Fold:
Amino acid sequence: MEREVRVREVEELSGRSGTTRFVLRDDADNEYTTFRDRIGREAIRFRGKRARIEFHEEDRRGFHNVYLDAIGPAAQPSGSSDRPEGHRDTQPADESAWDTAVEAAPWIIGTREPQEAVPPEELYERLHPFKELVADDIRRAGAEDDEST
Structure:
């Protein structure tokens, strides 16, 4: 089955046997589970965003399980191509920049394995300037592309 959802959260849980289970929760409080690392990691990238998911349901030992089989970007909302020519939405640049900043976080904070948790305010203060530089670079590259066409 397929469905478009807004991914509210993705929880990564380690089992006693060493397996990792990912639980995706959408805005309607539905839960989808996967034990496949690739799908779970991809689901994490969609936190707070709309996504198209594929899943199947299974009744087992008295439990109803919903398994996440695939996740990808949601279809563009209808009317998204109705923007005036030359109009750029800044949201994708900011989202991409935050994704890049989070991926670069170990290098920005100076360690891949911190001895203790970095307070959220400090982490934000360190990542935000980098995110702004990346977002500006994305927007500038987009503007150059517009000028060359």
Observations:
- Residues 81-88 have pLDDT under 50 and may be disordered.
- The first helix runs from residue 37 to 45.
- Strands lie at 2-14, 20-26, 31-34, 50-60, 63-73.
- The CA atoms of residues 21 and 27 lie 20 Å apart.
